[in-house]
Design goal:
There is one protein chain. The protein is α+β, with helices and mostly antiparallel strands. Helix content is 40%, strand content 13%. It contains 42 helices and 27 strands. The longest helix is centred in the C-terminal third of the chain and has 26 residues, at 869-894. It is globular and about 110 Å long.
């Protein structure tokens, strides 16, 4: 154990604790296998063991696809399509499948159709396949990426692991996934192949090719089946390759190709037992023999290091990997408890390595720390300060024992993939910060008055929404556009879409790829293409998200008061955002930030001191500061205990100013690390909030006791654990290979179907009720304990620890005892959610016929306890919600003077047109044209209706009708009138089909991708309607597109079954163009628009 760091001699002792990381040697546990063990050295005693001891599930395997010239991705996509439309196998079919992914995939669906027609003799009456946008396809389609991987694989230079090419390319970006469902009729599992897509890149995918990993998502029906685990233990065959489960989560498993090897792999390094199943893969990734002291559940959890989304950042030579002891407080026993490790999870990295990572990731800001995966280790790496603050170290990276999760097999310690630093995310500071429901309760419990939260809430709502309910009548709506963009971070969302799997590593999102990417349901068998969630429709220009839709229309010059479509979209956006603020209790704290925790590297901070130095100034009380000072509150979510928020002091420490955009924590606490006080945190990438808001900091008092820090004995006794050591598992292998294999399969599936979140709901209820529960609860009588104190009550502490202990169950192997779970469920489940947390989504479920079992029993609360802070915030939030919506409605109704004026203009135009046509009504040769033009004028229905929408797009259609009238009157030519009539009829036909779809049963319940796909078909049909060669008047394609858009905009909802948003659904780009032409405008291509954002300073100047 290292002594407490001393700022006077820290630099002298540090080099003595450094050592070059050495290859691991096999551990010899009490029952482990060694080379001298006679059992280990004897020939394989299980030569007759079955090849597939748990069976073989043939998911998708077509012998005729064994041709090596057919790429893997084409086999996958063909198998997916052929499962929906059986084909007739022939030499011609196989010839159509040979080639590259990019060459075959775009026409593969048509290939399947062609060969299925030959089998059944029918002709396809489907329209020609529609393709989704080129920009979207370039980002999401996997075919070119798979070709690059295949080419790199053939060269055999390990280019896929990254950092080997000047263009920065690396592999493993393509996601292959399946959905496992249960078919009740067949009483069997059914696996559906999903279309491959680009997405996150993982260490495993880069090392072994994207095709070597498959994600299997499991439906709720399948999760309920008792046979599920038995099914998953089996080998799963895809196109001649055997896959096994290697990692699991609540509702999905990760399958890996058992025989995946890198091109330069030497088979002579493999032992005889590694030739079957996944034994070699286990030894390569996480060898049991070298990690015997770990529990089996922790050993299993380490595989997640290989499947999380990362990007390659820097390659290190083995000799430049150093190891340094953790700083530890005095403790009992050999193993130091995590709360007494003052550097838990944080190592060091050289400045040169950080600069190289910054360059490789194309970051526009300097990093002081980075969260990474490397050489079986995980956590943060903090920049080495260098002289004069620290001596210069002879290495690129320093690992601590607390970071090293996997000891590597010495056969692979020089493996370039293992010596590559994989980046999870850079450390950065974000401001301002928002309080969570949990932190509000702790702040209130520890002395912050309720009125403070109510004032902050009101201020937050006013600042965030005032621009959305009050805009000028005589200026472009620049400020409103900025407010709309900020509601859903439109520009950031666009960048995240483009960055895909690199988004987290580049700091664009805090979420992992699996959290960002929406899981798609099974594709429609007749769908030609699938869109990607929330991508705009490049055919029509119509965005998918509400905020982006509103922003596009505002940028074109439309106004909410004069365009009902925009008004409704904007109101929906406002309503949804307000609901989210109210339900999530989003309260912005102006003087607060969120950042990554790191330990003080030189030990200069005193106990309960922190240091924060910023790369961008933060404005506090009108001053822009780069180094923060003063008392503050620090917390980490999820916060459940009264001790999870702590008042500390930010100090100005010049020796730490180099460490920008991180929260540097003192390592001189004497009882436990400061990070561990914050909801059991550490320094492996945990983020914390720092609050400097005086109204919150000043009244706050730290918890009177540290009782809530320790896990109560009753909680420890509530968990069971079937969690032996890896050494014991290896010892069992000597006794029975079959039992070992069965136990190993059980271990790999431990997290499956485990839902720890229920105790979070129980904790909310326990805190709210402030009560003790007597043994005779069956009598339905509740005893309110005198002196109950919410978060400080023993029941609230107990249930809070039940949640946090269960949260790590997949790592610790612990699970709640059945009798404890039943007892707690009997107490709490009858109430459902706590009253203040019954938001919009909860109410929707409660009202739905599918969720009739949602509990809504009244929740008891002692009247002597007084109002609960969350109840008051819910009440105030809902009142603010109603008030702001009313202000929006009042604003849109206020400016109506334009309606009579433009209505008069349109009616005068219609009267003039009819009069002119009447002059020619005796000309029988033009009778058809005259009737058509009268119909078009009447179809606008302006005689009986006020023109309550922006006239500009309508004017284009009016001018076209006027030109047609002129041709009839002056030239006796009715061709243009016939063209307009043709356009009108075609548009009405599409509008009515669109109306039937969106007003049909179930459309709104579809997921976003299915809705996008359905609507995009109409935009394609609209774009293809009335081809140029079918009209008589010479027009350009742009002129024809404008006419169709204006015609769609002109449709009267009283005469035609058309939705108010039909025109924008199929022609947003053209309608916005028509509107922008009414004033000064400039044409900019979409690629530039997507990267543009309004600067707040410009908005202030403009206003």
């Amino acid at each position: 154990r290292a002594p407490e760091p001393d700022p006077q001699n820290e630099s002298e002792r540090a080099p003595k604790r450094l050592r070059v990381l050495q290859p691991a040697v096999p551990e010899s546990g009490p029952n482990s296998i060694t080379e001298d063990d006679p059992i280990a050295s004897t020939p394989n005693q299980n030569e007759d063991k079955p090849e597939y001891p748990f069976g073989l599930n043939v998911i998708a395997d077509f012998p005729y696809l064994s041709d090596p010239k057919i790429p893997w991705g084409i086999k996958w996509e063909f198998g997916r399509l052929a499962s929906q439309r059986p084909v007739k196998v022939s030499d011609a079919l196989l010839a159509d499948l040979r080639g590259t992914h990019a060459g075959i995939a775009p026409k593969l669906r048509q290939v399947v159709r062609d060969h299925s027609q030959k089998r059944d003799g029918t002709r396809s009456d489907k329209p020609k396949p529609w393709s989704y946008a080129a920009r979207e396809s370039a980002v999401t389609a996997p075919w070119e990426e798979l070709d690059r991987e295949d080419q790199a694989w053939e060269r055999g230079l390990d280019e896929g692991i990254g950092l080997k090419r000047e263009d920065g390319w690396y592999g493993g970006k393509v996601q292959f996934s399946v959905k496992l469902d249960w078919e009740e009729k067949r009483r069997a599992f059914k696996t559906h192949l999903n279309a491959p897509t680009t997405g996150k890149s993982t260490h495993f995918g880069r090392a072994f090719h994207s095709r070597s990993c498959i994600t299997m998502r499991i439906t709720k029906n399948a999760l309920k089946q008792p046979k599920l685990k038995h099914y998953l233990k089996a080998c799963h065959r895809f196109f001649g390759r055997d896959f096994y489960v290697l990692d699991a989560a609540t509702d999905k498993v990760t399958l890996v190709h058992a025989n995946a090897r890198r091109p330069n792999h030497d088979p002579l390094t493999e032992t005889p037992e590694e030739g079957s199943g996944i034994q070699w893969m286990l030894n390569y990734l996480n060898p049991m023999e070298f990690n015997q002291q770990q529990s089996v559940s922790k050993w299993r959890a380490r595989f997640q290091l290989y499947f999380s989304d990362t990007v390659p950042g820097y390659r290190v030579e083995l000799g430049r990997v150093l190891e340094q002891d953790d700083l530890e407080l005095p403790h009992e026993g050999d193993k130091c408890p995590s709360e007494k490790i003052l550097t838990d999870g944080c190592g060091r990295i050289s400045l040169d390595a950080l600069k190289s990572i910054q360059s490789n990731l194309k970051l526009d800001h300097r990093m002081s720390a980075v969260q990474l995966r490397f050489f079986g280790a995980k956590g943060m790496a903090l920049a080495m300060l260098g002289p004069p603050f620290e001596p210069e170290e002879p290495g690129d990276i320093i690992l601590r024992p607390s970071q090293i999760k996997i000891h590597m097999d010495d056969r692979y310690v020089t493996d370039e993939a293992k010596l590559t630093i994989d980046i999870v995310r850079p450390a950065k500071i974000s401001t301002p910060a928002r309080l969570s429901a949990e932190s509000i309760q702790i702040l209130s419990h520890n002395g912050v008055p309720t009125r403070v939260f109510l004032e902050l809430q009101k201020k937050c709502f006013e600042e965030d929404f005032s621009a959305m309910v009050d805009w000028p009548e005589d200026k472009p709506l620049v400020k409103l556009a900025l407010a709309v963009a900020q509601t859903q971070n439109v520009v950031g969302t666009r960048r995240t879409r483009l960055a895909r799997g690199m988004a987290r590593a580049r700091g664009l999102t805090a979420k992992s790829w699996d959290e960002v990417e929406e899981v798609q349901e099974e594709a429609d068998p007749e769908a030609d293409q699938r869109s990607s969630a929330w991508w705009p429709d490049d055919v029509s220009g119509c965005p998918s998200s509400l905020a982006e839709t509103c922003l596009v229309n505002l940028q074109a010059g439309f106004r909410p008061e004069s365009l009902p479509y925009l008004r409704q979209k904007l109101r929906n956006l406002l309503d949804d955002t307000l609901s989210r603020y109210v339900d999530k209790f989003k309260i912005t704290v102006p003087y607060a930030l969120t950042g990554t925790l790191v330990p003080d590297p030189i030990g200069v901070l005193k106990p309960d001191e922190i240091s924060i130095s910023l790369s961008e100034p933060m404005e506090i009380d009108g001053r822009k500061v780069m180094v923060l000072q003063g008392p503050c509150l620090i917390l980490r979510n999820p916060a459940k205990q009264e001790t999870d928020v702590r008042k500390v002091k930010i100090v100005n420490c010049p020796r730490l100013h180099q460490l920008k955009d991180v929260i540097v924590i003192s390592v001189r606490n004497t009882d436990r690390s400061l990070a561990s006080r914050l909801a059991g945190g550490d320094y492996d990438g945990d983020k914390a909030q720092v609050i400097l808001e005086e109204t919150l900091v000043k009244p706050f008092r730290n918890a009177a006791t540290d009782t809530a820090l320790e896990v109560p004995q009753c909680v420890k006794d509530s968990f069971k654990s079937d969690n032996g050591s890896v050494a014991n598992l290896l010892a069992a292998k000597q006794q029975s290979e079959a039992r070992f294999a069965a136990r190993l399969s059980e271990i790999l599936l431990l997290p499956l179907n485990v839902y720890p979140g229920e105790y979070s709901i129980f904790h909310e209820l326990a805190v709210y009720m402030h009560v003790s529960f007597p043994a005779n609860f069956a009598a339905k009588s509740l005893f309110f304990a005198a002196g109950s104190k919410g978060l400080g009550h023993q029941e609230a502490i107990r249930v809070g620890h039940m949640f946090t202990e269960g949260l790590d169950g997949s790592k610790t192997g612990k699970s709640v005892k059945a009798e404890i779970q039943r007892a707690d469920a009997q107490i709490y489940r009858r109430f459902g959610r706590v009253t203040w947390n019954r938001g919009r989504e909860h109410r929707k479920k409660a009202e739905s016929s599918e969720h009739q079992n949602i509990a809504q029993h009244p929740i008891p609360r002692d009247r002597h306890l007084g109002p609960f802070v969350m109840d008051k915030l819910r009440e105030a939030g809902e009142a603010l919600h109603r008030e702001i919506l009313q202000r929006f409605d009042d604003r849109t109704k206020r400016d109506t003077r334009w309606k009579p004026a433009q209505t008069d203009v349109v009616r005068q135009w219609a009267r003039a047109g009819r009069l002119r046509l009447k002059q020619k009504e005796c000309d029988t040769s033009q009778k058809e044209a005259i009737e058509a033009l009268r119909f078009l004028i009447d179809a606008m229905d302006i005689d009986s209706c006020e023109v309550a929408r922006d006239i500009q797009p309508l004017d284009h259609w009016m001018q076209a009708i006027s030109r047609a009238i002129n041709q009839v009157i002056n030239r006796g030519c009715g061709s243009y009138a016939a063209d307009l009539s043709l356009i009108y009829r075609a548009i009405v036909s599409i509008a009515e089909k669109h109306y039937a779809l969106v007003n049909g049963n179930g459309f709104n319940s579809l997921n976003i991708v299915s809705r996008q796909d359905a609507l995009r078909k109409f935009s394609v049909e609209f774009a293809e309607a009335v081809p140029l060669d079918e009209i008589l008047t010479p027009l350009s394609s742009a002129e024809l597109a404008m006419l169709k858009a204006s015609c769609a905009y002109s449709l009267s909802y009283k005469r035609v079954l058309a939705t108010p948003h039909f025109a924008f659904s199929v022609a947003t780009r053209d309608l916005c163009h028509l509107k922008a032409l009414s004033g000064p405008s400039q044409t900019v291509s979409q690629e530039f628009i997507d990267g543009m954002s309004l600067h707040s300073g410009y908005v202030d100047d403009f206003e």
